[in-house]
Fold these 2 entries.
Entry 1:
Amino acid sequence: GAVVSQHPSWVICKSGTSVKIECRSLDFQATTMFWYRQFPKQSLMLMATSNEGSKATYEQGVEKDKFLINHASLTLSTLTVTSAHPEDSSFYICSAYPGGSEAFFGQGTRLTVV
Amino acid sequence: QKEVEQNSGPLSVPEGAIASLNCTYSDRGSQSFFWYRQYSGKSPELIMSIYSNGDKEDGRFTAQLNKASQYVSLLIRDSQPSDSATYLCAVRGSNDYKLSFGAGTTVTVRA
């Protein structure tokens, strides 16, 4: 089956620093990648949609200058949380969509900002 | 009104029983419907997808779709303790590729 590799699986950073999360589709090309955030005991909330070579589309309420998304190739998208604060601590999940019906999820990244 | 709503949990069933999960959606033009299982601290994993009205069976799982009622359900037969997880209903909208997720229903299977 299709594999999406997300790295790192967990990260602890100091408040005010930036953290980059990578999402790679290993055996397929993803025309679209999605980034979600999930707080404890809540569902997945879509943050942004990115298409290769174009600017990401952010959902309402998501700060595009804080959550930088780069989709430089059909197999790689990155999410950078800039000037992280404790309220940014969450579970971040990427999803790669090759077209068709199914999207494939990465393993998720647990971000803790101290 | 939320786009995707699931029946409130948590749902506790004895081992071997049937767990029934329900989901309604607001976008009448939606064509793709998914059930994901998510264990605590893990990413969601797809267990069922359904696109046409009626039933779709895969092992102990049966998904049911009724587009007229904008309703999709998941039955888990012969529930096992390993089925204890949160089940997320997801719907792909009619205008784009985005998935909208329900809040999830937490299922506990009692041994």
Note: Chain B has no helices and eleven strands.
Entry 2:
Amino acid sequence: KAGVTQTPRYLIKTRGQQVTLSCSPISGHRSVSWYQQTPGQGLQFLFEYFSETQRNKGNFPGRFSGRQFSNSRSEMNVSTLELGDSALYLCATRGDSYNEQFFGPGTRLTVL
Amino acid sequence: AQSVTQPDIHITVSEGASLELRCNYSYGATPYLFWYVQSPGQGLQLLLKYFSGDTLVQGIKGFEAEFKRSQSSFNLRKPSVHWSDAAEYFCAAVSGAGSYQLTFGKGTKLSVIP
């Protein structure tokens, strides 16, 4: 069974631009969560999608948004990038019979 | 507020020595608890989890953790550390069934001396 894949793995953007990150879950997993990891704040929950619906959202500004498609693939978008958005963005997926979340390798976003 | 605390930012041990990484949680009720490991530039790999039942949990790579309700702790242990265990370790929790938002500790970086 293929694991969680995230694309792209690395991204460099400049302030003010927007970016879209993609996450493909493990086959059969309908839940996708996104986390931001920075040296200062650690790992913070962004949002969770299940069956194309956002079920939970963390404490992030509206510039951070996401969506999920019918095949459970998810994208997150950050608009009007700021230097502080530089981070490793991780997605995690889980099956319906919840027991654990499986993480992808992450997308390293650098904002210049 | 719900929180997970890892008191040690960085720990250095010699190869072959035993290891204990500390984790404390602050939740109204006992949460589901997890330990993850992250190698540089990689995602998170689940080492073990505790939902209920036996308070000593076995995981992968020879790790185990003990849940202690009286101390609100879930410490990770390994009897003999290998150089390949050098990584960052994260303790995490969710508030219970129906909740899937992980709250993470700040992590403990483990260095292993040959």
Note: Chain B has a mean pLDDT of 93.
